[in-house]
Amino acid sequence: MILHASLIEQADAFSGNALLLTGPARVGKLAVAWAIAAAQNCQGARGMDGEACGVCRSCLALAAGAHPDVLLVEPRATTATGKAARRKLIPIGAVLRERDKTREYETHIYEFLEVRPSFARRVVIVGGAEHLGPEAANALLKLVEEPPHRALFLFLAEDRRSVLPTIVSRSARLGVAPLPDHTIESALIRSGHEADAELVAFAAGRAGVLADLDGVRGALEDARELDNSLGVGLLSALEAAERLEKRFDPAWHPEALRFTWRQRPAHERARADTALDALQSALEAYASPSLSFQVFALNVREAFGLS
Ligand SMILES: [Zn+2]
Question: 76-79 and 86-89 as β-strands: parallel, antiparallel, unpaired?
């Protein structure tokens, strides 16, 4: 299902080598990038908005995650020293095999582009382009300017201003905006789900939420359960913290917790947010998870005036 159809059309009309897709987290940038890569290589009859047919050999290979002409490069979380905060980075080792000392990347951009496309066009998707290190970005410049075999670069970033200017200046920009609620609703219904109001509100127009409905539903349920347990008593709050620890997914739970307490008074919300930030920092610093979750539950109880 193509949710950002007009963008596929725009990308189709684009004759350059590099597009910078910007938009908030989980708005659907990666899905747009896959759809562009699919359209560029599709060998069947394309749809009304130029979208890929979905049934040709190229489309099937892409759907199976085995397309020879599409490479997705994403940052790795690196640990600087000991317990120092982990930093996301796309290192030069992602571009050049000889610089990938620790064999972090299976395929390297430079070598990937030396090979002719099997279908129509090689596409390199760089997710989290704001995490491109200066060395990696420099190594990419020549490739972006004159890509072998007319390859296409798709850089994805939340904010254009946090991407290195050398990349921004060589890319045309494509903004990926949140969708209207009714589009999210009908997408849910078309994929056989219930379009419940809470889910639609949580999605706030972000198509990326649709890609992990189980994860999102689970996180919302866990957040609600914690919220209910906080008021019951200290013991029940600590038990809920333990359950939350076991199920905690950094991708969804922090947001689900904030969503659950969105209608509380501002001062309560601010203190609960602080407690959540402290929990996330503690987890990133490898503090004891069970203790961190207990402290978190106690702090949120206090934030809501329940202790
Ligand atoms: Zn096709």
Answer: antiparallel
Lookup: tokens for 100 = 């990938």
- Tokens 């790795």 identify what position? 76
* 208, amino acid identity: G
Give the tens place of pLDDT for each residue, 176-187: 999 999 999 999
User: CB of 253 within 8 A of CB of 235?
Assistant: no
Per-residue pLDDT reduced to its tens digit, 196-225: 899 999 999 999 899 899 999 999 999 999
Judge whether 272 and 303 are in contact, CB under 8 Å: yes
What's the CA-to-centroid distance between 205 and ligand 1, angstroms? Answer: 27
Please tell me the distance between residue 51's alpha carbon and the centre of ligand 1 in angstroms. Answer: 8
Distant-in-sequence, close-in-space partners of 146: CB < 8 Å, separation ≥ 6: 17
* 252 vs 270: CA distance, rounded Å: 19
Q: What CATH code would you report for 5-177? A: 3.40.50.300
Distance between CA atoms of 53 and 46, rounded to whole angstroms? 5
CA of 58 to the centre of ligand 1 (A): 6
Task: Report yes or no: 4 and 176 within 8 Å, Cβ to Cβ.
Answer: yes
The H or E element that residue 154 is part of is: strand 152-157
Q: 95 and 142 in contact (C-beta within 8 Å)?
A: no
Buried b / exposed e along 176-191 (16+ C-beta atoms within 10 A): bebbeeeebbebbeee
Question: Minimal CA–CA distance to 111: which of 171, 151, 165, 63?
Answer: 151
- Distance (angstroms) between ligand 1 centre and the Cα of 54 equals 5
Instruction: Enumerate residues with CB within 5 Å of ligand 1 (an ion).
Output: 42, 44, 52-53, 56, 59
**Adjacent-strand bridge partners of 90:** 132
Q: Which of 162, 94, 170, 166 is nearest to 126 (CA)?
A: 94
- Which pLDDT tens digit goes with each residue over 114-149? 999 999 999 999 999 999 999 999 999 999 999 999
**Gap from CA of 67 to ligand 1 centroid (Å):** 12
For the chain, the domains span 5-177, 182-303
